[in-house]
Amino acid sequence: MEVDGQCFIGVDDFCAKQVDPMWREADEIQVQALARYFEVPIHIHYLDNTAGGSAGGAVSQCTCHSFVDFSGGNEKAAGGGAKDVAIDFLYRPGHYELLYR
């Protein structure tokens, strides 16, 4: 199995090297697995500081990546079923912060 150019023996090897250790950032594949396993939509927000604001300053724009596609077409969490909930994170370099609404 190959993920992002790294070879792993299988799912257990991938989890042992990429998911279980402390100080490892969760990449897209881990977030997708979390959303699918719990069948809960996950939204990751991050601020993009781009140059070009008024008076030459930086402009902060919030970008959101949503993970709501559950395998098998089961999207009851996104459709207001029994799990009418979503998890929102703010991504900051090196970690995620839980956002409360």
The gist of it:
The protein is of the alpha+beta class and 101 residues long.
Secondary structure: elements and pairs:
Blueprint: E1 2-3, E2 6-7, H1 11-19, H2 28-38, E3 42-51, E4 58-67, E5 87-92, E6 95-99
Parallel strand pairs: 3-5
Antiparallel strand pairs: 1-2, 3-4, 5-6
What is the overall shape? globular
Q: Count the domains.
A: 1
Helix and strand sequence: EEHHEEEE
The main pleated sheet reads as:
4 strands, mixed
What structural category do the secondary elements indicate? alpha+beta
Mean pLDDT: 75
Extended strand count: 6
Strand residue percentage: 25-35%
Figure out the total of helices: 2
Q: How much helix, percentage-wise, in residues?
A: 10-25%
- Main sheet: strand order: 4-3-5-6
- Amino-to-carboxy terminus distance: 38 Å
Contiguous uncertain segments of 5+ residues: 74-82
Radius of gyration: 17 Å
Question: Could you explain how this protein is built, in words?
Answer:
The protein is of the alpha+beta class. It has one domain (2-99). 20% of the residues lie in helices and 35% in strands. It contains two helices and six strands. It has a four-stranded mixed sheet with strand order 4-3-5-6. A two-stranded antiparallel sheet has the order 1-2. A hairpin with a 6-residue loop joins β3 (42-51) and β4. The radius of gyration is 17 Å and the shape is globular. It starts with a strand and ends with a strand. Mean pLDDT is 75; it is low at 74-82.
